[in-house]
Amino acid sequence: MAEPEFALQGDFRTLLHRVVDLLDRRGLKPGAHVESIRPSDERLFLILAREPLTISRLARTAGISRQAAHASIGRLAARDLVRLDHAPGSRRDKVAMVTVQGEIARRDAETRRELIQREIQEMLGRARANELSSLLADLVNGLQKA
Fold first, then answer.
1. Is the pTM value of this prediction over 0.90?
2. By CB distance 3.0 to 4.6 Å, which of 3, 12, 50, 102 could disulfide with 98?
3. Is residue 17 part of a domain?
């Protein structure tokens, strides 16, 4: 039997549609406030979900410029997922923290992620699901370096 042709674009598009359909059937479609969040914004949001940080410390933790961190926080604040407060004892520094709405969105996203992981693991089995995860991590890392 011949190997299937490598058609990554079509495969990813089909996979994305099926995942969205699965989430729809489970009533777990993302809210409008999180639908189009940039991956870089999501990364900073997840860092802030662990603890509130000043913009400078957030930038250092994420390995990005202070300006990039500030822009990302501005986009997240516009969606009411984070807010900025003055740092204690400083008129200049601001601390970014996750809002109540942000925490609700984080928990919703975690529920969706767990559902998708469970479904994939049930379809493929633990070993193949772990292999898929490893392959995707290799792709992400390889594309970051390209």
1. no
2. 102
3. no
